[in-house]
Specification:
Number of strands: 9
CATH topology: Jelly Rolls
Largest sheet: 7 strands, antiparallel
Oligomer: single chain
CATH architecture: Sandwich
Number of helices: 1
Shape: globular
Strand content: over 45%
Distance between the termini: 42 Å
CATH superfamily: Jelly Rolls
CATH class: Mainly Beta
Length: 128
């Protein structure tokens, strides 16, 4: 057994209750998207942001848990009818559950670190 750091090792969470460490390097995202990392039902990740997200994303396979660890962000969620909700995460530990298939992006008010649990299969992106 060894200790890991969530900033450079993410976790694959499988529906059967198994978890596996996934070291992160420059090839991580292409390998994940290309299916070369094996089964990943949900991904536990930690990301830092110092500028607004450049894209909207949505996850049809399930809710996304988004938790602020430090900083301050505005999450923008777009409903099916095109209207938007804005949720401000401004206290460490504050979080939101983004509904499945809901477009969302973030505006960074103060440099932020965030923890995510994402059902990534079928994720879509579009420019802001």
């Amino acid at each position: 057994m060894e200790a890991f750091n969530i900033t450079n090792t993410y976790v694959a969470l499988e529906n059967g209750g198994h978890a596996r460490a996934l070291p992160v390097d420059e090839n991580f995202w292409p390998a994940l998207i290309g299916g070369r990392l094996g089964r990943v039902d949900r991904l536990l990740s930690c990301l830092s942001f110092d500028k607004d997200w450049s894209a909207w994303e949505r996850h049809p396979a399930g809710e996304e848990f988004v938790c602020l660890l430090e900083g301050e962000v505005e999450l923008h969620l777009e409903k099916e009818d095109g209207t938007q909700d804005k949720i401000v995460l401004d206290r460490p530990g504050s979080f939101v559950l983004v509904p499945p298939n809901t477009w969302h992006t973030a505006k960074v008010r103060r440099p932020a670190k965030m923890l995510f649990v994402t059902a990534g299969e079928g994720t879509n992106n579009r420019p802001v």
